[in-house]
TrEMBL record:
SUPFAM superfamilies: Protein kinase-like (PK-like) (SSF56112). Residues 114-322 form the Aminoglycoside phosphotransferase domain. This is Aminoglycoside phosphotransferase domain-containing protein. It comes from Phialemonium atrogriseum. Transmembrane segments: none annotated.
């Protein structure tokens, strides 16, 4: 929830809402704990909560900003964003942010993480509330594309700010319609055209050379991300595909060594190259626009939070590994192996 500019911390007491995503999540946890207590009344409850419980709970809560929350510039702000904030209150960054969001339009609310929102704060700028690790990676990747592949249709970053426990990434606002909404109204010829445009664009993206001695993952050393159920990030630098595969296949506490070896035996022996990867390709992240002649054009690819240099197969694995989309397609061996492995991840819900 976004508070009006004049609202103080003292007036934030409201009647408890028992039907929020966070409340339902906690009730699910309580039911699981109660079931365990019935079988073992002396069980150590602390061992039953997963390590990422707090992170999951926070993601289910809607952002509740207060102008008294401390704010920090994480990644340098653009001139445009500085001007917007100065128009609000140039002497107090937290107050300026709260006031700006309070009068902005909400463009997007995540169906699975209440803390993830996108605000349109001006005609040219949007602000996304997200995990700081995602925000920094997206900011870094957008700068990298701007320098190394400026012709690629992607937003421009306006910087990253942390306020309280939340992180705000600002980027350019992209007009048009996302492909998820546009697809049903397209004919076969238009669909083939969009497909061809995407093939050409991602061929360009994947042609970016993998810098020597750069770790896999985010281009500023943020590490590799595996966000299938929660957010898992490597603790040590991953320098090649072999190390990446080792990291992927050590993410489970439930898979037996025999099962793990079976899955790994299905993986082709050929070691793929590393390419620049978006990491979350789906129709909702592809912006299109209808041209005056009636054709449709891809005008932007958005949401680069999971991007960086990854094995060449990773893009297809992630593009077909989303619980919010249904796909009717023939899947590669890599995808099938990852699909089987997914249920064994230590951060599974």
């Amino acid at each position: 929830m976004v508070l009006p500019p004049s609202t103080s911390s003292a007036s934030r007491l409201i009647q408890a809402n028992t039907n929020t995503t966070a409340a339902r999540f906690n009730r699910k946890i309580i039911r699981a704990l109660q079931a365990k207590l019935k079988t073992d009344p002396e069980v150590d409850l602390s061992t039953l909560l997963k390590a990422n419980y707090s992170e999951q709970l926070r993601s289910f809560k809607a952002p509740n900003f207060d102008a008294t929350d401390p704010s920090t510039v994480v990644c340098e702000l653009s001139i445009e964003l500085k001007q917007l904030l100065e128009d609000e209150d140039g002497d107090d960054l937290s107050r300026a942010i709260v006031d700006l969001l309070a009068r902005s339009e909400v463009l997007y609310r995540s169906a699975w993480a209440a803390s993830s929102k996108v605000y349109r704060v001006s005609d040219q700028v949007v602000v996304k509330i997200t995990d700081e690790r995602y925000a920094v990676t997206e900011h870094s990747s957008l700068l990298y594309l701007q320098e190394h592949l400026p012709s690629f249709p992607a937003p421009r970053s306006h910087g990253v700010v942390r306020i309280g426990i939340f992180c705000l990434l600002s980027t350019t606002f992209v007009t048009g319609l996302d492909l998820e909404k546009a697809w049903p109204q397209l004919g076969d010829i238009q669909k083939h055209s969009i497909s061809g445009q995407l093939d050409a664009l991602f061929s360009q993206l994947r042609s970016l050379p993998f810098p020597e001695n750069m770790p896999l993952g985010g281009v500023q050393g943020e590490g590799c991300k595996d966000g299938r159920r929660g957010l898992r990030v490597n603790s040590e630098p991953i320098m090649n595909v072999k190390q990446f595969d080792e990291w992927i296949f050590t993410g489970s506490k439930t898979a037996s060594p025999v099962y793990t070896r079976l899955l790994r035996s299905l993986v082709p022996a050929t070691i793929p190259t590393c390419v620049f990867t978006h990491g979350d390709i789906r129709s909702a992240n592809i912006m299109v626009d209808k041209q005056e002649d009636g054709t449709w054009k891809v005008i932007a690819v958005i949401d680069w939070a999971a991007s960086g240099f990854y094995p060449a197969y990773w893009e297809s694995v992630k593009a077909t590994m989303t619980p919010r989309d249904d796909f009717d397609c023939h899947c590669s061996t890599r995808w099938l192996v990852d699909r089987l492995w997914d249920r064994n991840m230590e951060n599974s819900s």
